[in-house]
Design a protein that fits this description.
By secondary structure, this protein is α/β, with parallel strands linked by helices. It has 9 helices and 12 strands. The strands form 3 sheets. A 5-stranded parallel sheet has the order 2-1-3-4-5, with helices on both faces. A 4-stranded antiparallel sheet has the order 6-7-8-9, with helices on one face. Strands 10-12-11 form a 3-stranded antiparallel sheet. The protein is elongated, with a radius of gyration of 19 Å.
């Protein structure tokens, strides 16, 4: 199930002001999830259409073209894996984002192998999902031709190349480090609470004593804090924010 986050959806309009309207097919057998996703996509400026299962989605596919499909894996009649396989068998390269409550690595691997472009685990935050949607649209050429690059002082983050640089130096980052930095830099200058970061990066939407956030903030600081430049600021007892003029 998706988590409703109105503030997160609204901030997407700020983060992606140059996004072109995309036609997006939402396929999920849960009416509540379909409605929530369609509402969020409309708010973000896109044109969603909904289907309750793979068979219905394929019928819509024959009537019109789409810029992106968001497809649940666990559905009756035709599941998400079968839908992706059928679409790819017809040499259709429409980007597909899979949704699933499954968390097993083999399921993720299978989805990507049959032709999906990305995978999001339920429950997901709407802001995270919409960020992934925009990234896929950029890569597929549906969005503007310019690469999406975030900057913070000498730090640059190229989402299309999945690359972070400090000046002329490329910084090696794990997938989690990259995602955490993406969430911070997309809302540069804004305070993000611990709860927001745990939800958007790790999908933790309940009270937790986990130290995973502090651990990964420490990892990031070791890589991006240098030469007196320290953009990741701790707001004690609340959370973190990224700033241009942070100093040690």
């Amino acid at each position: 199930m998706a988590r409703r986050d109105a503030s997160g959806v609204a901030s997407l309009r700020w983060a992606f002001t140059e996004v072109r309207v995309a036609s997006i097919l939402v396929v999920d057998d849960e009416a509540g999830v379909r409605d929530l996703l369609c509402d969020a996509l409309r708010i973000s400026g896109h044109e969603p259409e909904a289907a309750g299962d793979g068979d219905e989605a394929l019928a819509l596919f024959q009537l019109r073209s789409f810029d992106l499909c968001i497809v649940d894996i666990n559905m009756p009649n035709m599941d998400g894996f079968a839908f992706v396989e059928t679409v790819r068998q017809h040499e259709d390269h429409t980007p597909i984002l899979l949704l699933s409550a499954r968390d097993a690595a083999p399921d993720v691997t299978r989805g990507l192998r049959v032709g999906a472009d990305d995978y999001v685990r339920k429950p997901f935050g709407l802001e995270e999902l919409l960020l992934r949607v925009e990234a896929i649209l950029r890569r597929s050429g549906t969005d503007t031709d310019e690469e999406q690059v975030y900057r913070c002082g000498p730090l640059a983050m190229n989402l299309d190349r999945h690359e972070v640089t400090y000046g002329d130096e490329t910084l090696e980052m794990s997938a989690t480090e990259f995602h955490l930095l993406e969430v911070l830099v997309a809302r540069k200058g804004r305070l993000l609470t611990r709860e927001q970061l745990l939800r958007d990066v790790w999908g933790i939407d309940f009270d937790s004593e986990t130290s995973v956030l502090d651990t990964y903030i420490s990892y990031l600081r070791k890589k991006v804090h240098r030469e007196g430049f320290a953009p990741i600021v701790t707001v004690r007892g609340v959370g973190y924010k990224l700033v241009d003029n942070g100093t040690e």
